[in-house]
Amino acid sequence: MIKVIIVGIIITIVGLFTLGVVNSSMQATDNAINGYPTAQVQDENSVKVSITGQVNYTGSYYISPEATLGDLITKAGGVTNEADETCYNTSLLIKTHTSFYIAPKLATNNMCIDTTVGKVNLNSANSDMLIDIGFTSSQAPSIVTYREENGSYEALEDIMNVKGVGSATFEKVKNKICLTDPKTNPSTEA
User: Which end of the chain is more exposed for a tag (fewer CB within 10 A), N or C?
Assistant: First the structure.
């Protein structure tokens, strides 16, 4: 009986030690890019902004609110070759934005292939065009009205400022919308 208790205690100690080693190694990789340790210093003049999608290193970064989306993209290692330049503006100031999504040129559907998608420009689309890509009949006119009252959308995420459009809708349409037409995009460099 005592042997069983001693074996149980030894197994518990070894298990706790193993979990501690695994946990500390996982924490070390949270602050690493490609296995190299990194450090981000937050000062009183920086904000935490996340960037996802077609950038080399998605994640959250501390950056000045006066910095541009281009600066954030640079911190994230630049955009990939698949980034759709009609879906972001590198000269946009971070200001109060807390997240950015860089959409791909191709949209993945539930099939085995990627297909080119004709994206709808949020800054020029009418209600019918917005309904065709997945907005509801009540959301579409609200999107147009919001644009008319507040000016052009500056980031894809701005669509969530429209009453009735939340993160679930954004997730559904984020690869079907853009901010400019391909020939008129003011900023395609990152």
Answer: N
Q: Taking the domain 47-178, which CATH number applies? A: 1.10.150.320
Q: Phi and psi dihedrals of 24, rounded to 5?
A: -70, -35
Q: Which tens digits make up the pLDDT trace of 21-65?
A: 666 555 444 445 544 444 455 667 899 999 999 999 999 999 999
* Contact present, 147 and 159 (Cβ < 8 Å): no
CA distances from 157 to 4, 64, 96, 180 (A): 59, 19, 12, 14
**Which value, in Å, is the radius of gyration of the alpha carbons in the chain?**
23
